[in-house]
């Protein structure tokens, strides 16, 4: 999709190089694989000049910036939300107590348990195909996935409910792509910039600033989603929601902030400070380490 968009906009031809990462290959919990499991192999290929730019799922990127590389474009994000794919077309509210839902992301686990519906969660790994098959085969009653991934693979028709962010706040940068290249490749940076989407960049900047600041201050699962909308004075404003959960989902702190697009980063940082003030750092035990998909901030997914 990114290659076609670049060719359409600039006439440049793009050769696709498929890189399978340890995160794709291993079925171990992402939390055990460490930071950057979906990203490092692509960054190595960039540094070695085997490729000129890489396309990542933005939420897989570690928050620390990478020396010598830049995110040259953040294309328009279609949908940041999580979805349910359940047997028999069921929605979350229709799933009977005791139903089993596949997800390894502690952000999703905490929010599912926090609903108080007596739903069980079980860890799940593997590609989308494998995960969906567990529902079709009857091994699981449902799985929770990012809508964007299913849409990209043309499998959105299998979604039984798109989860309102009030119930399931997505991961920071979920659904967005990062187009990364070498920082000294000025000609390519310029070409890729046509793919950049201003509102998406502002939203992702706010969400990632929130995540980075919370990583520094607490170890609990984090959710965050920013939206850009017209304000009352003919301008635009950014609306950032953030939440931090205890692992069992029984405790949560949630807050939001608005501001101008130019202040996106600061809005994220300020919201993190607000959440920490409310005790976000006290929601999680000290033993846990993890990552977004097995989802604790501080790591790649
Ligand atoms: N955590 C893994 C991951 N990283 C990116 C996506 C696809 C959606 C996206 O681009 O955010 C997924 C799968 C999922 O969460 O369902």
TrEMBL record:
Cellular component terms per the entry's GO annotation: cytoplasm
All residue ranges annotated as the Porphobilinogen deaminase N-terminal domain in the record: 1-188
MF (Gene Ontology): hydroxymethylbilane synthase activity
Boundaries of every Porphobilinogen deaminase C-terminal domain copy: 203-276
Domain of life of the organism encoding this protein: Bacteria
InterPro entries, per the entry: HemC, Porphobilin_deaminase_cofac_BS, Porphobilin_deaminase_N, Porphobilinogen_deaminase_C, Porphobilinogen_deaminase_C_sf
Record has DNA damage as a keyword: no
The reaction(s) this protein catalyses: 4 porphobilinogen + H2O = hydroxymethylbilane + 4 NH4(+)
Known partners and oligomeric status: Monomer.
Record's function text: Tetrapolymerization of the monopyrrole PBG into the hydroxymethylbilane pre-uroporphyrinogen in several discrete steps.
PANTHER family registered for this protein in UniProt: PORPHOBILINOGEN DEAMINASE
Family, per entry: Belongs to the HMBS family.
Protein's UniProt name: Hydroxymethylbilane synthase
